[in-house]
Amino acid sequence: MSLHDFHMTKTHLKDYFHESGMFNARVIVAIVVILILTGVVIARLVFLQIINHTHYTTLSQENRVTLVPISPPRGIIYDRNGIVLAQNSPSFSLEITPDEAGDMEATLRELGELIALSERDIKRFRREIAQKRRFEAAPLRFNLTEEEMARLAVNRYRFPGVEVVARMTREYPLGSLAVHAIGYVGRINEAELKKLDTNYSGTTHMGKLGVEKTYEDLLHGTVGVEQVETTARGRALRVLGRTPPTAGKNLYLTIDIRLQAAIEGVLGDRRGAVVAIEPKTGEVLAFASTPGYDPNLFVNGISSEEYKALQTSLDKPMINRALQGQYPPGSTVKPFYALAGLEYNKVTADDTVSCHGHFQLPGVAHQYRDWKKEGHGVINLEHAVEQSCDVYFYTLALKLGIDKMAEFMTRFGLGHKTGIDLPGEMAGVMPSSAWKRKTYKQPWYGGETLIAGIGQGYVLTTPLQLATITATMANQGVQMKPHMLHAVQEPGGATITEQKPQMNVRVPVVNEENWRTAVNAMVSVVHGGRGTAYSSIGRTATYKIAGKTGTAQVAGIKQGAKYNESQTPERLRDHALFVAFAPAEAPQIAMGIIVENGGHGSSTAAPVARVAMDYYLKDLLGQGSSAKTPEAKPGAINGAGQTPAAAPPEAAQGVTQDE
Predict the structure, then answer these.
(1) Beta bridge partners of 588
(2) Domains in the chain, please, with CATH?
(3) How many CB atoms lie within 10 A of CB 294?
(4) For 403-447, how does the pLDDT look when each residue is reduced to its tens digit (9 = 90+)?
(5) CB of 289 within 8 A of CB of 210?
(6) Strand, coil or helix: what is 246?
(7) Which residues form the catalytic set?
(8) DSSP 553-579
(9) DSSP string covering 368-382, please?
(10) DSSP notation for 543-558
(11) Confidence band of 24 (pLDDT split at 50, 70, 90)
């Protein structure tokens, strides 16, 4: 190629005019794009800064300010006289902030040399720190002793990030005394947490049993809040504002804790239950179930060893016998059946029955025995109740029939819950022919009527029910709803609001004189010369008591065999029962008592009532008491609980022992 041709080709390839045009076009496009993008940015800024200013300001503020809930102080529980039953006390716990502690394993190991740390403590701590951020403290040990706090104070310089923190914790100063009425609080579990609202933010405990559970809403209070300035990672810098929590309300219970202590003191280590009620109001004066347990063990979590001991104990201390124990009432229901006989015109007060020590259904060889082998002779209604004649009540039961008996007793509430303000109440059983067909798909038999006539067989009641129907008898048919709450006090000790009594039912009668006949028969039980409770409590009583002893079989006795208590294993011996109210002419207290495997109601259960009544009525009647009120026992663990077993209906042979 010639030099001329080369230059011509080069000039052809280098078109400056064309390239300049392309460059200018690109510049224009770039400027347009830049203007469009700038417009988008400006539009976005307008949207963020002007249109959505409030929304993003709030988000920014929330990123800077954290709302920290403040748990409210729980309300205090008192007895009717102002004695503290449950309170909040300072408790010292050991807490560690992982971010500041450094080598956590070394820290835990060295702390374990200074204070007692269980595997359970360490496992719980590891679980807590796994759920928290590293700059948040987690508790390692609760309830430090003064000696432990002193050791930690001396060695404080060795443990960065380790602090002893004072917090309020629930305390039950009287230990196991009245534990089944008061209940306890415990740490909120995951299932409960899902059901709770924001008012429980920051709260770690709630009521689990008893009054603590029933009146959780009153006791808990209202949560407070702190506005805390934080870093982007959530670390607190300073408190910007504070809305204090509202403390829970204080509760005054109907219980007289000194009366409670007297009752539990006389029961001792025996298994049993006692409920005392003020008949005119339904206020529960005492609510005992023994043995009990120390509720303080449950506040911050009971150890597995202690819980297993409670659960596996043969004495079953965790079962609320007064509310959940279902027992045959034995002869304690005889005054009520006597009243039914009068009401249905099946007997009169003067009608007599000849008792020879046993009873037989027409055409049946089986003998239904009386507790008194030789019999009671010719006996009328009042003396039949006074001496607890089984043959008289076999005869009366046959005249009434099971359906009439059930109809009358359900008027008093047997077979139904009383509605007391405590969780877990059992209803008991008042059988009828329809009930048996529904429950067992079987017909009702005559022999079962006889057994029900002396309060055994299918008939089951709770001690609370026994106390309630006894109070109804004392009130001549007016049944007040039993309740534990006496008054509510606003936080800070302001206004006190007393609770108004509520009536459950009124038991109608055809003839008011029938009430007096039944009550007089109960007075004869205690004060009559042949009364089953005369020797044990009536002989020395200085006020009139209306009562009825009872004995309920636990193990069956074969036909012709004789019950020998001394040769019967302790847990197969008869239950001892007693119901009573006093003073008989103007009742102030009514009671239902059962002592499991106690033998005889007269010698075992009735003296418990006498101690309680002496204590409660001594000031009212202006006289001294022969009963010494024991001091409140510390909450010793005596065992664990299950509903006491009743003898199966077929086991009962229609005989109670000397009542």
Answers:
(1) none
(2) 68-129+136-253 (3.90.1310.10), 256-318+522-644 (3.30.450.330), 328-461 (3.40.710.10)
(3) 23
(4) 999 999 999 999 999 999 999 999 999 999 999 999 999 999 999
(5) no
(6) strand
(7) 331
(8) -SS---TT----GGGS-GGGSPEEEEE
(9) EE-SSTT--EEEEHH
(10) S--EEEEEEE-SS---
(11) confident
